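Cross-posting from the modeling subforum.

Setting up a comparison between two proteins and wanted a second pair of eyes on the formatting. Protein 1 (sequence, then structure tokens):
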Amino acid sequence: MNPANPYATPASATIIEPASVSAMGELVKGWEKRRLLYNGIMLLPGLGVLAVGIARDFAPWPVMITSGLMCGLAANAGFFGGPLAELYLRAILFKGSPKPWLRTGLFIAGCLLSFIIMGFFLIGILLEPVMLPPQ
């Protein structure tokens, strides 16, 4: 307690080290630069899946376009898993030291996961007429 001002907030027992702040900034900047690359990589296959869905009359085109936009938003929300995983792995396994190969590996794994999810959507579109009973 501060005897001069009893209403002052108590001093923090832990002080954030400047090295931690700069490491966090480096992590965020590194991943945000990769977000542009990720969106560029996912754009063409995503448009391809949408084009196949529209061409095969899987759903009305406004529904397909809206679904494509929602999937893009979900993919960008899922992108946050990369920096979060790197943060935890660096803290737990590497005592906070940066590992460039870790970021690259997580980025590639995330891209592969996104391609697998897109592949499932494409398979669902391509198999849809087979699964419907004849009318």
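Protein 2 (same layout):
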Amino acid sequence: MATKLEKAKEIIKANYKDAKCGIFRTRNLTGDTMETIYDEDGLTIDICRDWGYFEVFGLEGADFVELKHFYNKLTGR
């Protein structure tokens, strides 16, 4: 069984081309249209295709930092 971090990396890798402008662990407050692309086992990943970013909930701090580094490599940052 994959860890939450491994699953998050899998989902982000499959969808990063639609969200190259950022990855966050906080909810947007501006009312951007979000689509939940994964929601299982305490891990939720939303995508805002209009503005090109992800929101990820359910990872511990260190795991989110690792996911952000992974995302940055995918997007060429």
